[in-house]
Amino acid sequence: MGMRHQVFLIARLRSSDGTSAYRCVAAYHHQWCYAELAPLHMSRFLDLLSVEENAAVVREELLAMDGKYGHPSTDPTFPSCPCPYSLFLLGTAWRIGREADGELSFNQDSPLESGFLDARMGCWDGDNDDGLSFIDITDLSHPKYCFMLHGVSQPVSAYRYLGSYRRFLESRSKSYMCYCVALKY
After folding, report:
1. 169 Cβ partners below 8 Å, 6+ apart?
2. What is the pLDDT of residues 69-119, one digit of tens each?
3. Nearest to 115 by CA among 32, 57, 176
4. 72, 92, 105, 169: least CB-packed within 10 angstroms?
5. Do the Cβ atoms of 107 and 97 come closer than 8 Å?
6. Residues 119, 38: contact at Cβ < 8 Å?
7. Local confidence band at 122 (pLDDT 50, 70, 90 cut-offs)
């Protein structure tokens, strides 16, 4: 039960044979993430990544993986959580936020680690009835992101993702456009 959404951090890395390919370096599941929440959490993560100290640790995690592993499906040594600090930032962004009055808010009642997923899993392998978020952190100074919706075979922007919730947001007297504008990345 819920509006399940998964988010995947990906980066282009060299494998042990010298070829370059995208790898999932962290994956997270959120049980109740839909409408404006996915872009809001995305924005929080990108804010955390823009902090130089965070970016430095993430950069080191990616460098430590570069050239070390083969393909995740064929290399048994590929870890389920190759970038633990990156996963911590991802979970923090997707689970903890600030209310308008500055108080901390927790988006779920379960512990942070309950949303950790195996980075080797396929993107549609988990329980999902909302969609997916992908964040490309190959270039930490210019991360890229997109969303995927069920039944749509191409990645979509935050604008299009929110557009799929337009009637729902407007029924709550919220303009989906304000969320598109607020997502500054």
Report:
1. 35, 36, 162, 175, 176, 179
2. 887 667 778 888 999 999 999 988 887 754 444 454 555 555 566 678 877
3. 32
4. 105
5. yes
6. no
7. low
CA dist 143 and 158 (Å) reads 14
Report which of 90, 1, 4, 110 is spatially closest to residue 41, judged by C-alpha positions: 90
How far apart, in whole angstroms, are the C-alpha atoms of residue 184 and residue 151? Answer: 27
Token reading at 114: 């309950």
Q: What percent of the chain has pLDDT over 70?
A: 69
Cross-strand bridge partners of residue 29 = 6
- Residue listed under structure tokens 């070829």: 19
* β-sheet bridge partners, residue 26: 9
Return the axis-axis angle of helices 84-95 and 37-49, rounded to nearest 10°: 140
Lowest mean pLDDT among 32-46, 127-141, 156-170: 156-170
- pLDDT at residue 177 tops 60: no
3-state secondary structure of 97: strand
Contact of 128 with 4, CB cutoff 8 Å? yes
What is the dihedral sign for C-alpha 72, 75, 81, 87?
A: negative
The tokens for 49 are: 């990544």
Mean pLDDT of 164-180: 58
Q: Measured between alpha carbons, how far is 4 from 97 in angstroms, rounded to an integer?
A: 18
